[in-house]
Design a protein that fits this description.
The protein is built from two helices and seven strands; from the N terminus they run αββαβββββ. By secondary structure, it is mainly beta. It has a domain of about 80 residues: Ubiquitin-like (UB roll). The strands form two sheets. A five-stranded mixed β-sheet has the order 2-1-7-5-6, with helices on one face. Strand 5 and strand 6 form a beta hairpin. The longest helix is centred in the middle third of the chain and has 7 residues. It is globular, with a radius of gyration of 16 Å.
Length: about 110
């Protein structure tokens, strides 16, 4: 195998941003997601926690009116933008916490 190919063969344990803290493996937190209580895994970003529970749509695009899902999961693309505790935040850059209020903004208000 060429040396350049080896550079891309990292396991999840080699990249700390993809590790799941074993102390949180069985723990959950309860959040209010779009007005409904939802148990999510603790110790990960809001985006990762929602994806792990099958919640793949993060918002509706204001321009195309189509559903969006988290894409890069590292804070670059803004596809995971949600209202978290009253502030628009990137869900991939925000750790999920007990009692969070998360709104995915499925309905966009038209400007008058």
């Amino acid at each position: 195998m060429a040396a350049t190919q080896k550079l891309f063969l990292l396991s999840a344990t080699d990249v700390s941003m993809f590790k799941i803290d074993p102390s949180h493996a069985q723990q959950t937190v309860t959040v209010l997601l779009d007005g409904k209580h939802k148990a999510l895994p603790a110790g990960m970003s809001v985006a990762a926690a929602l994806l792990s529970c099958g919640e793949i749509i993060s918002r509706v695009s204001p321009s195309s009116k189509k559903p969006c899902s988290p894409h890069c999961l590292m804070g670059v693309c803004y596809e995971c933008l949600m209202e978290i505790d009253g502030t628009k935040k990137q869900a991939c850059m925000t750790e999920v916490a007990e009692g969070m209020v998360i709104n995915r903004n499925f309905v966009q208000e038209e400007a008058s």
